[in-house]
Amino acid sequence: QVQVVESGGGLVQAGGSLRLSCTASGLTFEDKAVGWFRQAPGKEREGVSCISRYSRYTYYADAVKGRFTISRDDSKNTLYLQMNMLRPEDTAMYYCAVKRVSYCSVSWSRTTDFGYWGQGTQVTVSS
Fold first, then answer.
1. What are the pLDDT digits (tens) for 46-87?
2. What phi and psi, each to the nearest 5 degrees, are found at residue 88?
3. Do 21 and 80 meet the contact criterion of CB atoms below 8 Å apart?
4. 79 and 85 in contact (C-beta within 8 Å)?
C-alpha cells in the first residue's frame, strides 16, 4: 500500500521561511520523479516544483523561482521543499505527488501524470 505524507506546514510572516517534507512508502521512491503542488481556496491546483530521479533535473513554477528549492533524500524516501522569502500569495495547501515515471519533462506540472498524492499540508503566510 502506497502512502505519501507531507509535513512542515504552518503559519509564517511574509519574508519568512518554511521547509516542507514528504515521505513516501510502498513504492520504489528512488526510481520516480516527485513534485510539489499547491492549491489556494477557489483556485486550481498548480505545480510548484518537480525533481527527477537522481536529482538530475529540477523544474520550478515562475512564481517561486529563486525562492523555493526542491531536493530529495532517497535513503530516507523523502522529498523536501525549502521555501524562503515567503509571500502572502504563497498561502495554499501544499501537496506532494509521486510521478509514474523517472523524469519530470517540460510538461511536469500536469497533475494527471502523478499517480500518488499526499493529503496536503497547509502553509499560511501573513502580511
1. 999 999 999 999 999 999 999 999 999 999 999 999 999 999
2. -55, -35
3. yes
4. no
